[in-house]
Amino acid sequence: MCRLLGYLGPPLSLEKLILEPSHSLVVQSYAPKELKVALLNADGFGLGWHHPTRTTAPFTYRSILPAWNDVNLAPLCRYVESGCVLAYVRSATPGQGLDVSNCQPFQSGQRLFTHNGYITNFRETLYRPMGQTMGDRAYGQVRGSTDSEHIWGLVLSELERQPDRPVETALERALTTLVTLARHHKTTFAANILISDGARLVGCRFASDGPAPSLYWLRDSDALGPGTLMASEPLFEGPWTPCPDPVLFTVEADGNPQFRSLQHLHGPG
User: Fold this and answer.
1) 10 Å Cβ neighbour count for 228?
2) How many domains does the chain have?
3) Which residues are catalytic?
4) Which of 53, 134, 140, 255 holds its CA 20 to 30 A away from the CA of 182?
5) CA-to-CA distance for 98 and 44, rounded, in angstroms?
6) Closest-CA residue to 90 (of 44, 38, 39)
């Protein structure tokens, strides 16, 4: 199961966010503390960041190498600064290919997407039903074979049907569709999600059956200064707070996360 993080705040060097913390994502790729299934996150990694001063499509750097073994990561992180960042390290589902197309973050227009979780027996249960549910444009943007990107496809489909719809509404509707499909096909899923557009973070902590994977938030830390972090595991010592479960959240420019319960999605089905 992957590890992810999101940052929104004053621009800072990716080095401070990705490499320097004592329990950075690079460390979590080989020594995670809260994984319940996998022991390593060595099946690739990815970074996505928005330009700090220009309105333009975000940038991504994705690799199938373990994060600790990519010689380009350190110089890239020293060079790049951003005030809105998503990053993750991958633990691939058995049978899923080690291909850059399967590495996150996924990007569409101004938005970046990361997912930590799973769909149980994805290829045998929801692979085709999820594809059949998507709109044509959204389906055409799914280039890999992962459950993560298919969840992104559901979100994109909601935005395709109603482009002015807030992304948090699209995410909730996508989760509603996923709950319905999972019940019908008798499978389960977990979905910790982060979506960025350069000015906001939107996401959720949710699982259809049992507790969701770990997710924490922290605002205005001594280590990084002003700014809000969402992360699968705390990156360093500090007053990290576990996110509620199940929940949809937004982080606006003021840095205060706003949480809304998704308990209604656990209703009788």
Assistant:
1) 22
2) 1
3) 2
4) 140
5) 8
6) 44
